[in-house]
Amino acid sequence: MSGTADAGPVGAVETPQPTGVIHDIGYRRYEGRRLGRGHAFATLAAHSLRGVWGLRRPARAKIMPFLIAGTMLLPAAVSVGVMALFKQRAIAYTDYMVIMQVVPAIFLASQSPYLVAPDLRFRVLPLYLSRPILVADYVFAKLTALAVAMYTLIAVPLTVMFIGELLVDMPGGADVKGYTAAMATGVLHAVFLSAVGLALASFTPRRGLGVAAVSAFYLLTSAVSLVLFGVLSSLSRDDAAVWALLINPFLLVDAVQSWLFDVRSSTVDAYPGGPVPLVLLVAATALAIGGLFLRYRPGGSR
User: Fold this and answer.
1) Are 214 and 113 in contact (CB under 8 A)?
2) Cα separation, 285 vs 141, whole angstroms
3) Do 74 and 117 meet the contact criterion of CB atoms below 8 Å apart?
């Protein structure tokens, strides 16, 4: 019939036409410089350190670390004022950490879980450990970041006190020996506390539980140390009572400081054991780092 389009054979089925097209863009190789494990380690450590202080994070993440840092700095500023007005030292450098131990303990409890809990919770560790980062790189990058942050928390107020003492021109000159001993012992504090804090926080993907675990460790060791010291002292077991003080991690490092630098502690007249506290400190640090490697061992639950 004229005017009628050719519809084709009756009952024919139309074949669907493809609607997508695959473009062959080829495979482009990376020809740039490969920075390797060292650069990856440094990048992870720097990123973790910034995170501890809340840098490049929301404003609320900066409140806790900088509030703690300000609290840690306040006695140093007061001490400088006392030196300026009365020409007397209010706080000895070597006593600063023992007096202020609650503040770095809070910092440790609040920031240790931040470094490890999110990676566990969101299961991104396989991405980190694919390559070139190894388990040792990951562990020591996190430990380095927290130890540097802890040492900054310790060293800044001590340095402020020392600079103030130089400007005030104290009678007899500045206490260089005390400042040097406190700064060197600060390294021991930072490494030991960071290792313990990360080891405890790494066993849970929940930040709240990590904070509770680190806080409980400090409270328990401090309480047990004081209770045993009081009980043994009341029984006239003074030698054993002094050993009980070493259960407190801050007093353990203080005992090492007293032996290494021959300085008197404000807590007791003399710690026991000579180099034994140093051996205990090294063993406890190694145990904590070993716990971290056990947590992140190949095939472990991550």
Assistant:
1) yes
2) 16
3) no
Instruction: Return d(Cα 140, Cα 195) in angstroms, integer.
Output: 10
Tokens found for residue 182: 């406190």
Q: What is the pLDDT of residues 54-72, one digit of tens each?
A: 998 899 999 999 999 999 9
The token duo for 226 is 């004081």
Please tell me the distance from the alpha carbon of residue 121 to that of residue 255, in angstroms, as a whole number: 38
Cα 113 to Cα 192: distance, rounded to the nearest angstrom: 16
CA 250 to CA 129: how far, in whole Å?
Answer: 34
pLDDT in tens, 116-137: 999 999 988 888 887 788 999 9
Integer angstrom CA distances of residue 82 from 106, 161, 164? 27, 11, 10
Measured between alpha carbons, how far is 159 from 166 in angstroms, rounded to an integer? 11
Distance between the two ends of the chain, CA-based, in angstroms?
Answer: 76
Question: Which among 111, 64, 105 has a CA at the least distance from the CA of 220?
Answer: 105
Taking the C-alpha atoms of residue 7 and residue 5, their distance in angstroms, rounded to an integer, is 6
Residue 102 one-letter amino acid: V
Tokens (6 digits) for 281: 């400190």
How many residues belong to the chain? 302
Cα torsion through 86, 92, 98, 102, rounded to 10: 40
C-alpha span between 297 and 194 (Å, rounded): 19
What is the DSSP code string of 119-141? HHHTT-HHHHTTTT--HHHHHHH
Euclidean distance between CA atoms 127 and 268, whole angstroms: 50
